Here is the input.
Amino acid sequence: MKSSTLVSGSEQELAEALAALRTRGRESEEAVPGPEVVVTGSARPDPAPLLDSFPGAVGSEDPDPIVLTTARLSEVIEFRPRDLTIEVGAGMRMRELLRLLEERGLWLPVSGEGLERSVGGWVAAGSPSMWDSAFGPVRRQLLGCRMLTTAGETLNWGRHVMKNVAGYDLPRLLAGSRGRLGVLTRVTLRLWPGPENTSVLSFPGESGWDQGDFSGADARVIHVSRDGELREIAVFAGREESVRRRRAALRGFLGSDGLHASESVETGIVAPPPRTPGSAVYRLTPGRRYLASTLRSLVDTTDRGRPAIRAWPRSGSMLARFDTASARERMQSALDRLEFRWPDGDPMAAGTGLPVGLERGGPADLEWAQERRKPSAVAIESRIEKVFGAWPRSWLADHI
Amino acid sequence: MHAASRLPEEVRLTLEAIVGSHGLIEDPGRLLAYEADALTTRKGTPLAVVLPDSREALIALVRALHAADLPFVPRGAGTGLSGGSVAHDSVVVATTRLRRILEVDPENRTALVEPGVITAEISAAAAPHGLRYLPDPASATACTIGGNVAMNSGGPHCLKHGVTSDHVLGLEIVLPDGETAWLGRGEDGGLDLAGLFIGSEGTVGIISSALVGLAPVAGTTRAMLGLFDGVGDAGAAVSDVFERGLVPVALELIDRATIEVVEASIFAAGLPTDTEAALVIECEGQAEDVEAELAIAAEACRANGAREVRVAQSEAERLAIWRARKKAYGALGRAAPDVFVQDAVVPRTELVRLLPEIRRIADSYGLRLANFFHAGDGNLHPNLLFDRRDADEVSRVEKAGEEIMRLCVDAGGTITGEHGVGSDKVRHMPLLFGSGELALMGALHHAFDPAGLANPDKLLPVDRVGGSAR
Ligand SMILES: Cc1cc2nc3c(=O)[nH]c(=O)nc-3n(C[C@H](O)[C@H](O)[C@H](O)COP(=O)(O)OP(=O)(O)OC[C@H]3O[C@@H](n4cnc5c(N)ncnc54)[C@H](O)[C@@H]3O)c2cc1C
Here is the structure.
């Protein structure tokens, strides 16, 4: 475990720290690489444990990385409930944000997990969720943001408006950028009217219930436990009467076999499995067509190599958690064998290889995931990173 | 205006070798068709227009132009409303012959399309599978998907479903030096690269294909009209709809001036010409939900003084309402030789205050104003009617447009919600962005187009080659 320096403070203080770092980095340009920077929304006093579970951090040669936390930027900047927008400090906890919204009958499409993470971390991670297909992913909810560049300069993007095409779409670029391009200090979000009722139906196996979106469910989740048990979850959200009717219709379709109805989303899906040190979480995006075969190839891995999986068939994405190195290796070879076509502008030169993103893992995970990326996309990305003066290894370490 | 330049002979030969003589336009008469987009006040004369008919030809053209250090302007159907494809002494690369739908994958719910495909054709190709492409700019039967992606276009139904960027899963870009890259949405663990290139208005390269998402056709779709005696009341009803917990798929406002013009045209849909404002509200989903949602919307209208609420009684009636809405712009052509359409977005609750203000501005310049817009998104489209041969009127339109823009920005709004910056709004960019933001965007541009060849003078108010502010 490494030692580290924690920088926590106001936006001004963070900006000053960044400016100072930039100077230090410049002075030492020839001799040693600049200090590693980790951006987090974590409120933990000791950031060291963070650094062991993120590739940007663990792979570093730097014995003394700098951890910048937005935890103290937790105020409401501007809440416009009637316009369905809110702007808050990036360090506000998700739980607090959702509570503020609920008071006004409003809502953000987030699932119940990771409520202790910061809002900035939620935006910067841009992780998939069950609501993506119905409400759009995190990047659709981000109307604007304020950031500190790696040199400590403040930049503002977007406003409290639902549509905006003035200039390049920086909010889209920054959503999911994982703190690599700078530090998000404020975010402006699109809000939704809170559903009167949210409830789930959870049942085993694949029953073809979602064919043609017959069910009227607002979201569909497949949950696979490490024992290989596969459960389908239908999520309903909306007006009381509507939820009741649609749920009853699905119940009728399924019959009562093995049906386990659960009233809250939390209990049905969400509780993430406890994290073991050294485990890795991959984001796989096979698309709708290859989702089932990808799922099968991962679940079919017998014995203790199985991952825990949460899959969202409607948006064609999933998260898979592996707890041992051998499990990961098995997954990697399974994925390499999988028939998958990555669509390409030139259909004759269609690429292969399932896109794999790393949510959390060690240096070996990062290296493997990086190697699978298309070189042309990596080249584009590095041009963007250069413009932002991106930190070589910074990583968002928020969501643990 | 200086005398029109010509394409250097050796470049002409190279381009002709790539696209053939039928794919190269240099004749001044034929170039006239490319001197403007749908914003008729901004014009330019291209050196030439090239029309590649394959991806390979497109790439070869961009490489040749790069080698010759000649600027180029990508162009789709030319329906843009911000002068985005206007070319001065540069070569227009038109995508209109790249119009193959390469694949519709019903299982994956995606379509891979070339940039020149007409937007509405995607839904037509998907329809046999019970699918559709959701974004629906009112120009969908004419504009290209490449233009939509370049502008991040919206449309009436983007209120619930999201704009173009929410439906593009990936794209191929031909960079200004002819290199190509397939850009996804960050699913490979990287940045949302497509997200940055969507809405880049042709300033960082040409989109050579796009993978778009498709969605099932809705079970039930119904529309209603709320008729109001005051445009402010209609604005208040818009906010109230959302406060009642409803997000309709579309919520449009059409004012009296527009209704009068539309009802006098072949697109007449029986809208009452004595109403100050009509809201078109559409809901879709399961029949019972649609029924309940329409009732909520009707309540919101009545509570804000609607004198009448009419639910479309048949599919034909519903389609007639939409035809009236979508053809309103064309119908305005009957009322005046020219139309200048503004495009600003404000926080929705500001509509009540701003609609009368905008009317006042138009009146103060003695201009005729017609409004029809995406009210649910707070996306205003004040249309100023004029005659471009009347220099004084043109200058009043420019001034009124500018005043409206400032009004909207001061109300917390933005200078464009869907029509883009193009060449028309470059001057407004500093209303929204400071020097730091502009410099960063300039640097992003420079990273992909260091020679400044891609769609010069659009989008950014900076000397893009040097990256410094103008
Ligand atoms: C009657 C009418 C109604 C309209 N309604 C709407 C509406 O509801 N919502 C809306 O958002 N817009 C609307 N528009 C505006 C316009 O239709 C859109 O901006 C559309 O996306 C433009 O497409 P196009 O193919 O005509 O592009 P063009 O006008 O040819 O070009 C637009 C811009 O895109 C660039 N471009 C074009 N193709 C490419 C490419 N392949 N790669 C890179 N850059 C490219 C051009 O350089 C230019 O900057 C409307 C226009 C009209 C005339």
